[in-house]
Structure formats: structure tokens, C-alpha cells
């Protein structure tokens, strides 16, 4: 990876794959993509929203081609059925806890209506996309403390530069018995002499203690924590600027599973593992001016480089989420240790 592209993972000498990382080594290396957080830490609350804006225009009017791959469907996300059917994305993507999905849906609908008053009147309704993991081990999920104002705050905070670790939706998440959270990574490559980027943003809340495998083969295990059932979840959002059709994006999203498997995941019965992929190349007009559109599409035989990038960025983004997250106590004094502390002690 490029020496200019520092990340929590590379700070400990861990290299995920062989492709070059982007300038910032985050999903925001894909031009137009921004990420923002709202973090709620109060009493027994360790939760929040993370908002990803796929471009800076009106997403309802200028949709992006997208696809979803449900690796294991033990989840309560919203909007995936229409993304799978129509192959488009028309709102920001929200990440949150399981009981925050409804609040996120309402906030995205209100935002879309404020920008497009014709929604639900003279044109169709809008498909909000909200993805979730259960942060109930460290946070009082029953409090249902997140509000629509918190969604607005996360969206308004969206930037090319954003925090990783225990922030936003990742505040109360766990992974492989360690503290989990929000992580990101990117890869760059050439096609027809042009440089392109693929980036990943993950919400890491999965994996049994003792199952984690580092890129160098080590297997960290939190002290005094027995192996338990796999009941977590992971959300992977992949963005690229390569011109693709929805079917190709679904194939790329499927390769996020390869990155998860490299870490030691096996997609347990109680784990919700979902990958959403979109491209910023070629917007889809809601109000079409003609019956046909002409689009540039990647030749299928050239797609392997994107498969590799999807696996590498997913693997690194999860590790970045864990390494960037300090040890935390939460609800009921429950505790998750930090992978960074384990690496510092076992380097």
C-alpha cells in the first residue's frame, strides 16, 4: 500500500492485500462521497448515527446505480428490497442500532420531501436506506434514545474527513470480543489507463471471541472471555467511480464476504451480514427526458480487480474500526477491550 495512506491498520504494520490504498484510505477517496456521525454517550447509552452521502446533489432526482448482497439475513434494515429490485439508491445511507431504524427512515423521508415536495403527491414515494447492528451489549438499546434531529446532525456533519472507531453508529459495537465500530479503507487501480477508486465503510459488530485472524496469521483473543455463539452483525457499504450496472455491483458486493472470511467470520445463524454497493459514475434521472439512455459499462472480463479491492477494503476497514476503538465500559458495566491494546502488548 502507498506509504502516504496511513490507517489504524498500517500503524501496526498490518497489510491487507497488495493493491495500493487511496490518498486518505477511506471511502471518501471516491469523489463526492462524504461521511458524518452523531455520537450519543450518556449514562448507559453508547449509540448514534453514521450518515454516508453518495454525492452532494439531489439524490432523489439524480439516483445512483446500486445493488445489495444479503450474505446472511438476520437483520432489520430498511430499503433493501427496492434497491435489489430497481438497482438504484436515492437517499443517503444511514447506519445505526437495530431500534433506531424507524427513526432513521422517518428522518430520511422528511429530508427527501423537503428537497422534493412532489414526493408522494405528483410523483412516487422515496426509498430510505437504513442499515443496522445491535449495540445492546454496551448500550441501553431499549431506551430508544435516538431522534430525527440526531440524523440531521450526522448528515450535516458529513465530510471527506471523518473519524473511525467508537463514533456514530459504531459507538457501542463489538467485534470478535473486542470493541468494534466504524472503519473505512480504499484501493486505487487503473482501467484503460484511467485511475479509479473503490472504498469501503463498515459497521463492525460481529465475530466470536478467538476467531479473529490478523493478516500476519496471529489470532488475538480477549482475556477471560470464552468463545460464544455468533450473534453479531456487520454492514459493508462499498462505493466506486467505475461505470457499472447493478448486476455487476451485486457481484462486487458479494466479494465483501471474502474480506469478512479472511478475518475469521463464518456468517453465523444469528449474524446479519449485509453489503451494499453503488457507483458514482452515471446518475439515473428520476424525471427522464427520453425513453432510452446510453451508458458506459465495464467489460465483464475486467471486473476481477474490483473483486480484489472489495475483499481487501472490507478486511482492512473492519480492522481499522477495531484498532481505532479504545476499550469501553457501557450498560451494566459491560466491557469490551481494545484490539490496539492487544497489539501494543503483543507486537
UniProtKB/TrEMBL annotation:
One Pfam family of this chain: Peptidase_S58
Cross-referenced CDD domains: DmpA
Protein name per Swiss-Prot or TrEMBL: P1 family peptidase
Family (UniProt): Belongs to the peptidase S58 family.
Source organism phylogeny: Bacteria, Pseudomonadati, Pseudomonadota, Alphaproteobacteria, Hyphomicrobiales
UniProt cross-references to SUPFAM superfamilies, sorted A to Z: DmpA/ArgJ-like
Amino acid at each position: 500500500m502507498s506509504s502516504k495512506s496511513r490507517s489504524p491498520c498500517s500503524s501496526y504494520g498490518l497489510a491487507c492485500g497488495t493493491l495500493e490504498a487511496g490518498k486518505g484510505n477511506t471511502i471518501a477517496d471516491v469523489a463526492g462521497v462524504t461521511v458524518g456521525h452523531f455520537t450519543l454517550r450518556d449514562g448507559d447509552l453508547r449509540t448514534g448515527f453514521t450518515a454516508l452521502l453518495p454525492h452532494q446533489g439531489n439524490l432523489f432526482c439524480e439516483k445512483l446505480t446500486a445493488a445489495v448482497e444479503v450474505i446472511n439475513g438476520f437483520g432489520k434494515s430498511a430499503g433493501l428490497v427496492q434497491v435489489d429490485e430497481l438497482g438504484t439508491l436515492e437517499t443517503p445511507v444511514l447506519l445505526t442500532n437495530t431500534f433506531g431504524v424507524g427513526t432513521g427512515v422517518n428522518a430520511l423521508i422528511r429530508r427527501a420531501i423537503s428537497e422534493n415536495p412532489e414526493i408522494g403527491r405528483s410523483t412516487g414515494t422515496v426509498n430510505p436506506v437504513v442499515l443496522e447492528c445491535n449495540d445492546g451489549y454496551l448500550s441501553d438499546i431499549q431506551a430508544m434514545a435516538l431522534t430525527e434531529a440526531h440524523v440531521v446532525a450526522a448528515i450535516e456533519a458529513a465530510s471527506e474527513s471523518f473519524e473511525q472507531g467508537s463514533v456514530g453508529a459504531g459507538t457501542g459495537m463489538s467485534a470478535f470480543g473486542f470493541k468494534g465500530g466504524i472503519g473505512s479503507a480504499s484501493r486505487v487501480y487503473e482501467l484503460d489507463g484511467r485511475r479509479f477508486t473503490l472504498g469501503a465503510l463498515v459497521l463492525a459488530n460481529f465475530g466470536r471471541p478467538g476467531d479473529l485472524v490478523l493478516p500476519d496469521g496471529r489470532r488475538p483473543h480477549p482475556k477471560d472471555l470464552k468463545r460464544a455463539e455468533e450473534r453479531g452483525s456487520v454492514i459493508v457499504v462499498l462505493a466506486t467511480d467505475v461505470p457499472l450496472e447493478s448486476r455487476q455491483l451485486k457481484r462486487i458486493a458479494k466479494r465483501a464476504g471474502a474480506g469478512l472470511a479472511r478475518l475469521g467470520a463464518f456468517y453465523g445463524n444469528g449474524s446479519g451480514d449485509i453489503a451494499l454497493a453503488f457507483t458514482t459514475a452515471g446518475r439515473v434521472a428520476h424525471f427522464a427526458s427520453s425513453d432510452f439512455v446510453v451508458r458506459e459499462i465495464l467489460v465483464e472480463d475486467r471486473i476481477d480487480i474490483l473483486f480484489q479491492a472489495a475483499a481487501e477494503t472490507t478486511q482492512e476497514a473492519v480492522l481499522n474500526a477495531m484498532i481505532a476503538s479504545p476499550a469501553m465500559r457501557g450498560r451494566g458495566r459491560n466491557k469490551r477491550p481494545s484490539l490496539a491494546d492487544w497489539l501494543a502488548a503483543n507486537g
